[in-house]
């Protein structure tokens, strides 16, 4: 791919061409992707951050731009940060606007399978639902054709079947200490809410079982109103129009929740990004890892190097703690000196057994 330098920014040829067409008035809304077009609509809700929002919305989906230093980064002979440095800065409250990005890897210790692990992942164990292909279970067109496989799966994944683990409570503790700006999660299991993280602190990028909507009349429901039907193997129906009531999970072919676009205001002001338990393969969520300023520390607690930690230019303030996610969080908690506080929080939440296991 050819890279061009313009206005002191290094961008890929596609971004440069799009920008050039836009300046000449040749681009139309038809040339915008659905997500980018949504960005244009959403900006009106954040007038106070319009400048930063416009900047981020044009580049957040270009990994090349991030890896070529779009947001800057540490250069020269500077100290490479460590997990101990991150812990010290959290403990001394030097980080007050922490953003957490999390994926299925933080929920697998609670017993919930992830989607893509060969052999044990959810997509490898869906034969019982007689799907044409695994991903069909989360495709909106297939759902309208045959909702039964999704609701059979929903019975297994519905909130309450599993308990939060140490990782969820660590994020809750960040909130309790006033240091969490927002948690962005790919998970639909609701364990963040069960751990006591308030809904307004969560961006559930792929939706939630906490609310539901009739697919016909669009009436809103609370997730608990569907629980009995789902647990009994029934498809929940709207009493008003008899349409199917679907949990507000984002299917392939549906728009992202409006709250996802909070990143337009959260990421420009974040002072620490923690990425945990995710492969950073699903867009547009994955690209958010590159949306913080170059001066912002980024901590990866994960099985493998992913996203900009794997293919980007290393920043002096990037830290990667590889291996089991719970073990990595435990190590951070011990460096913070928060072990007793975390155990007390888990006990209060009724998860004392989880501490003993972990």
UniProtKB/TrEMBL annotation:
Ranges of residues in domain Deacetylase sirtuin-type: 76-339
A single GO cellular-component term on record: nucleus
GO function terms (MF aspect): histone deacetylase activity, NAD-dependent; metal ion binding; NAD+ binding
Pfam assignment, any one: SIR2
Active-site residues, Swiss-Prot/TrEMBL: 206 (proton acceptor)
PROSITE patterns membership: SIRTUIN
Keywords for the protein's UniProt record, in alphabetical order: Metal-binding, NAD, Transferase, Zinc
Record InterPro entries: DHS-like_NAD/FAD-binding_dom, NAD-dep_sirtuin_deacylases, Sirtuin, Sirtuin_cat_small_dom_sf, Ssirtuin_cat_dom
Domain of life of the native organism: Eukaryota
Binding site for Zn(2+): 214, 217, 238, 241
The name this protein goes by in its record: Deacetylase sirtuin-type domain-containing protein
């Amino acid at each position: 791919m050819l890279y061009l330098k313009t206005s002191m920014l290094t961008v890929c040829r596609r971004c440069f061409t799009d920008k050039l067409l836009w300046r000449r008035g040749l681009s139309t809304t038809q040339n915008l992707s659905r997500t980018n077009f949504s960005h244009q609509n959403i900006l009106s809700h954040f007038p106070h951050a319009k400048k930063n929002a416009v900047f981020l919305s044009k580049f957040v989906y270009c990994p090349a731009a991030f890896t070529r230093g779009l947001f800057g980064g540490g250069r020269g002979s500077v100290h490479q940060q460590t997990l101990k440095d991150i812990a010290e800065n959290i403990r001394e409250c030097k980080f007050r606007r922490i953003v957490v990005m999390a994926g299925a890897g933080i929920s697998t210790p609670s017993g919930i399978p992830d989607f893509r692990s060969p052999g044990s992942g959810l997509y490898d164990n869906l034969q019982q639902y007689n799907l044409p292909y695994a991903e069909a279970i989360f495709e909106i067109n297939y759902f309208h054709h045959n909702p039964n496989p999704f609701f059979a799966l929903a019975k297994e994944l519905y909130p309450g079947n599993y308990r939060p683990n140490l990782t969820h409570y660590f994020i809750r503790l960040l909130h309790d200490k006033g240091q969490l700006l927002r948690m962005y999660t790919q998970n639909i299991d609701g364990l963040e809410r069960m751990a006591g993280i308030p809904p307004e602190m969560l961006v559930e990028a792929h939706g939630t079982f906490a609310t539901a909507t009739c697919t016909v009349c669009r009436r809103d429901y609370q997730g608990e109103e569907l629980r009995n039907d789902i647990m009994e193997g029934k498809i929940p129906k709207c009493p008003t129009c008899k349409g199917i009531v679907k949990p507000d999970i984002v299917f392939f072919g549906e728009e992202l929740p409006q709250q996802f676009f909070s990143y337009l205001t959260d990421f420009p002001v974040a002072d620490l990004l923690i990425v945990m338990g995710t492969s950073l393969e699903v867009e547009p969520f994955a690209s958010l890892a590159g949306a913080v300023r170059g001066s912002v520390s980024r901590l990866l607690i994960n099985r493998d190097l992913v996203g900009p930690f794997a293919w980007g230019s290393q920043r002096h303030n990037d830290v990667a703690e590889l291996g089991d996610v719970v073990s990595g969080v435990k190590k951070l908690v011990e460096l913070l000196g928060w072990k007793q506080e975390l155990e007390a929080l888990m006990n209060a939440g009724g998860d004392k057994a989880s501490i003993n296991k972990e």
